[in-house]
Amino acid sequence: MDRQQKKVVVIGGGFAGVHLIQQLAKDDRFIITLVDRNNYNFFPPLIYQVSAGFLEPSNISYPFRKLYHNKKNITFRMGEFQRVIPEENKVILSTGELTYDYLVFGTGTQSNFFGMENVKKNAVPMKTINDAIELRNYILQTIEKATITTDPDERRKLLTMVVAGAGPSGVEISGILAEMRNGIYRKDYPELKDPQGGAIYLVDSNSKVLGPMSEKSQQYTHKALEHFGIKILLGKQVKDYVNDEVIFADGDKIATKTLIWTAGVIAVELPGLPATSVGRARRVMVDAHNLVQGTNNIYALGDSSIMTTDPAFPGGHPQLAQVAIQQGQLLAKNLRAIADNREQKVFIYNDKGTMAIIGKNKAVADIGKLHFKGLTAALIWGFIHIWSLINYRNKIKTFWNWAFAWFTKDVAMRFIFRPTEKKV
After folding, report:
1. Which of 91, 94, 118, 362 has the lowest CB atom count within 10 Å?
2. pLDDT interval class at 403 (50, 70, 90)
3. Are residues 180 and 296 in the same domain?
4. What's the half-sphere exposure (Cβ side, CA atoms, 13 Å) at 360?
5. Are residues 144 and 245 in the same domain?
């Protein structure tokens, strides 16, 4: 390796890591190693469509090694991050060790169950591809059980679904489940004479759905969800889930076999970093260049980090894809600036808006001071999400599946796949 080349180790191949690497891919002053527990990149905003059978995992995923074909300065290491040793510029992985000149964390978040062990054990999360496949299997198997039970109370519990968390993920999964219940399931399961025997609940401890969005978006979404037949319970904090009952802090209960958990996230733990650099929800505190406090060559991006230097976001940035993308892109420019002995730029987030899909022809989008709803917002949402997929294969396959579902009012991916796990 040339003396001037710097070893950059990137932990996590999400939005932040991939966009950082893309910017450095043709700069041979950097030798980049991407580390991820999976051998593929995936697109988290469409996870819920995989769980509902509208998309296959391959529609929103792409192998890292294929992504970086012919990129001579990029290598991939599959493995779990275990610990960083800053004084030795070394990271310990489940698959060996790596040394670095610059270390970048883009490890994102995981589901936060707030210490509720029964919820953690029995609820179904929706954070990863594996979660989405498990949720799809679980829902389909639960409905199959409902077709054969002769106990009305048992059938009601099997057909009742509770979605905890009324943010974009909760709104999107509850909306798509309601659409399937009101249409597809009526055709697929003639044994269920009354598919409305169960209910879909969307619950949240906050007082509004889509808390970060505009009041217009909140009101439109609330009405649209109710129009789909979803029962919205706000100001209701889940405290336990045991014996097929979701138990709330006020003592109320809902009998159900299905609790889908989208109510909170916490940053992935990063052992070895200075304890003083870890902030709320385990997010790592960084300066205006995403440099981890108390270090001189370790960076954290996106959901892994919390930055308080941006004047418009003194409490830290929202955990959105655009924040991760923009931070990854800027860090690449700053690493090149360091190599050129130029001044680095501070991070200022360019807020491109927030949006959420509710159902077919129904969505909301807040872009700057503009508010969109209904079909217009749904088209904006669809265009942006297809455009954001990592390559043209994914874009084409996703567009085709959406077009098929749009015109046929059906989806084709209602399979229950349960491969036997074997240790490699």
Report:
1. 94
2. confident
3. no
4. 18
5. yes
